[in-house]
Amino acid sequence: MAEPETPAPPQPANPAPSSASADGVRPQTPIREALDALERASKSLQEKDPALADRARALIAQSADSVRFNQREFRHEIAYAVQDTEKALGHQLNLSSSARSEVDRLAGSAPNLENDQMAALLRKTAEINDPKLVHDIRRTGGEIGRQVEQNTESIRSQIDALENTARSAPRADKLQPPPADQPPSAATTDAPSTARQRQADGPPQPEQQDQRQQQRTASRYGTADPSVYERNIIDGVISGIRGAFAPSGAAPWDAAPQPFGERLTAFQAKMRDAGNELGLRDAEKAGRAALEAMEGFRTGEGATVMNRIQSAARADPEGISGVLSQMREGGRYQDLRQQFNNALKDETGFARAYDQAAEALAKYAEARTGVEQIIARRPDAANLTAKFQQLDADIGEAAGNAPSRRERKSMLEDVSKQAGEIIQRAVEAVKAFFTRSGPEASRPGPSPS
Question: How far apart are CA 441 and CA 379, in angstroms?
Answer without folding.
Answer: 33
